[in-house]
Design goal:
Strand content: 5-15%
Number of helices: 15
Oligomer: single chain
Order of helices and strands: HHEHEHEHHHHHEHEEEHHHHH
Strand order of the largest sheet: 3-2-1-4-5
Number of domains: 2
Helix content: 40-55%
C-alpha cells in the first residue's frame, strides 16, 4: 500500500475538490470501499470515462475496494418527456447498454459492478420523499452550481431530482457495502456533497468524496473525441490503431498531462520521458509511449506491440 497515495494523486493532477481535510490520511492509511458511477447512455465506455476509471484502478491497486455503479435508474430520467411506448424502448436500450458496460468494465478493470435500478425500481414516491426528500433542503440544492446554471435556462423536476437519486445511491451503498468514499468528475461535486449530507443525516456516518478535473486539451476541448466522434473502448467501435493514432496526435502541451492521468507509469518515469522527448521532440517519444501504454492497458500487450516500431 502506497503511504503517499494522496500526494501521488495530487502530483498527477487527479484531485480537484475534496470533502475533508482528513481524506489524505484516509487514502494513505486506511482501506476504503469506494464507488464511481456512470450512466448507460451508450453500449461502450469512451476514453473520457477511462480517464476517471483509471483513477479508481489506482486506488484499487493500493488496497481500496472499487465498486462501479451503472445508472440503470438515473439513466432513465435523461428523457422524461417520452411517451409510454418510447419509455419502454428507452428502458430496453438502457438495460442492453447496462449489460454491455458491465462486461466491458469487468474485462478491462475487474471491478465489482452494481446497478442502481436494483434498489430504486420498486421504491414508491411516498417512500422516497420520506426517506430522502425530507432530509435535503431545497435551498441547499438550489445553491449547487450545477442547479444554479440550469435554473436560468429551465430545469425539469426530473432533472432537479437527479441529485436526490444520486444521494440515495450513496446512502444505499453505504448501508449495504460499507461504502465510505465517492469519486467523480468535477461536474458531479454538488451530487457528491448532497450524498454526504444525506448519509450524515440518516445514518450518522462520516463519508468522503473527491472530484477529478475533467480532462481537456490546451484549447479547452473535451478529451476523448476526434472530429466530434467519441473514442470508444470497444475495439469493434474504435480500433486499436484509431486509438493509438488519436493519442499520437496529442499536442506538446497536453501529452505530459495525459501520461500522468492515463498511464500507470511512475512520475519518475514520466520525468525521464519528458527529458528524452524535449531533446528530440520530432520523434514524438512521449506521444508514442502514451499510445502504447493506453492501448496495452485497454486492449492488451498483443495489440500494443503492433505499434512498437513507432516508438523507435
Amino acid at each position: 500500500m502506497n503511504d503517499n497515495l494522496y500526494e501521488e494523486l495530487l502530483g498527477r493532477g487527479v484531485i480537484k475538490d475534496s470533502s475533508s481535510e482528513f481524506l489524505s490520511d484516509k487514502l494513505n492509511k486506511d482501506k476504503l470501499n469506494f464507488y464511481i458511477g456512470t450512466d448507460p447512455t451508450a453500449d461502450s465506455l469512451h476514453l473520457g470515462h477511462y480517464s476517471s476509471l483509471i483513477t479508481a484502478k489506482r486506488l484499487a491497486m493500493n488496497g481500496h475496494k472499487a465498486f462501479i455503479l451503472i445508472g440503470g435508474a438515473t439513466g432513465l430520467i435523461g428523457d422524461p418527456r417520452g411517451t409510454a411506448e418510447r419509455e419502454k424502448v428507452q428502458k430496453n436500450i438502457i438495460k442492453k447498454n447496462s449489460e454491455s458496460l458491465e462486461k466491458q468494465i469487468k474485462k478491462i478493470f475487474s471491478f465489482e459492478v452494481v446497478n442502481n435500478i436494483e434498489w430504486t425500481e420498486d421504491v414508491n414516491s411516498l417512500e422516497f420523499l420520506k426517506d430522502v426528500g425530507k432530509h435535503i433542503n431545497v435551498s441547499y440544492m438550489i445553491n449547487k452550481d450545477l442547479v444554479k446554471r440550469q435554473l436560468e435556462s429551465g430545469i425539469s423536476f426530473a432533472e432537479f431530482s437527479y441529485m436526490l437519486l444520486q444521494a440515495y445511491d450513496f446512502k444505499y451503498l453505504t448501508e449495504k457495502y460499507n461504502i465510505n468514499l465517492q469519486i467523480a468528475g468535477s461536474d458531479q461535486w454538488g451530487n457528491i456533497t448532497t450524498g454526504i449530507e444525506l448519509v450524515r443525516k440518516t445514518l450518522g456516518k462520516e463519508v468522503f468524496g473527491f472530484t477529478m478535473p475533467l480532462v481537456v486539451d490546451s484549447n479547452g476541448k473535451k478529451f476523448g473525441k476526434s472530429e466530434g466522434n467519441a473514442i470508444w473502448l470497444d475495439i469493434n467501435k474504435t480500433s486499436s490503431e484509431e486509438l493509438f493514432n488519436y493519442l499520437m496526435s496529442s499536442s506538446e502541451v497536453d501529452v505530459f498531462q495525459y501520461l500522468k492521468r492515463l498511464t500507470f507509469l511512475s512520475l519518475e518515469e514520466i520525468s525521464i520521458i519528458k527529458k528524452l522527448h524535449t531533446e528530440c521532440p520530432e520523434k514524438k517519444i512521449a506521444q508514442s509511449r502514451l499510445g502504447y501504454e493506453v492501448v496495452k492497458d485497454i486492449h492488451g500487450k498483443g495489440e500494443a506491440d503492433k505499434y512498437l516500431k513507432v516508438r523507435h
